[in-house]
């Protein structure tokens, strides 16, 4: 059937597969032939390549099969049985590329591999763009700490209630897992509350100042104008300082700043009330800094209503989802004032240290 596309080349490859050329050369030729013509083949013709590739795979060593797996892993048109043979290969270096990337594998195949193969196989599956609850449950049953962390980090992984409970239980013994779980947008509020109650202060500080995954693209979320790159906060700082001296820099004032989209004043107010530099507060307004912004609001002694307005009206940011607001309120209400104040200062120092490190690395990179 493939001969209808390139009869001479396919006939030559088929003949070589019977022994006219070294087997590894045959595999390379057939793979190249398929990739060059995959877009023009019908499903039945694609399947015919299994008849050429599968017998070759069975006779090849792992080092020869790795490039084949890499080449076929990213095309949705790869021969199905060939992909299955690669995915079920005992060597994880061979199986890894198709386990991570190939859409030609069924959920049934992936669950079976999760139940029977090595931790490296499970780790590769954990990196797939989308994982359903049945698959994450299977991975969690046998997976080690590396698999748990990979799943928690994977925004495309969906968890059952049991799966999430298992991850939260493991997080008690794994600080990195605690941080990754806490940043998930789909973590139920009751489990987030449990994580926060058990985490150490240092873990909480790292978690609360880390960039938060964004569930949606950066679209305009309000009528406010996005903040320009470089802003002169001199006037805003003077105004909030004057308000503070007269006791008027309170929730209602900051709330009004947020509703009006006056985010230079919001940043200046948070900076003054937290005793943290403007440079540390400004990045928290961005859409991926939701938890850091919550910490700053708590440290500034603002209430949840004002914090909600600040989150809702951030310039240039997509609107937060209802789930995000539910999680944000859990964090806000469960956060001690003293911890919030220490965390925002810790985060500010860390960001400053990172900037210094980046600035020092730049000249070194140019010299090299």
Fold and architecture overview:
This protein is mostly helical and 368 residues long. Helices cover 67% and strands 0% of the residues. The chain has 23 helices and no strands. The protein has helices spanning 7-20, 23-37, 43-48, 50-58, 62-72, 80-87, 92-101, 107-116, 119-126, 133-142, 145-153, 161-171, 175-182, 189-198, 201-208, 234-245, 251-259, 263-274, 278-281, 290-299, 304-312, 322-334, 337-367.
What is the compact description of this entry?
67% of the residues lie in helices and 0% in strands. With 368 residues, it is mostly helical. The termini are far apart.
Query: Ranges with pLDDT <50 over ≥5 residues?
Result: 1-7, 216-226
Count the DSSP helices.
23
How large a portion of the residues is in β-strands, by DSSP E? under 5%
Spatial extent as radius of gyration: 27 Å
Layout of SSEs?
Blueprint: H1 7-20, H2 23-37, H3 43-48, H4 50-58, H5 62-72, H6 80-87, H7 92-101, H8 107-116, H9 119-126, H10 133-142, H11 145-153, H12 161-171, H13 175-182, H14 189-198, H15 201-208, H16 234-245, H17 251-259, H18 263-274, H19 278-281, H20 290-299, H21 304-312, H22 322-334, H23 337-367
Helix pairs in contact: 1-2, 2-4, 2-5, 4-6, 5-7, 7-9, 8-10, 9-11, 10-12, 11-13, 12-13, 13-15, 14-22, 15-23, 16-18, 17-21, 20-21, 20-23
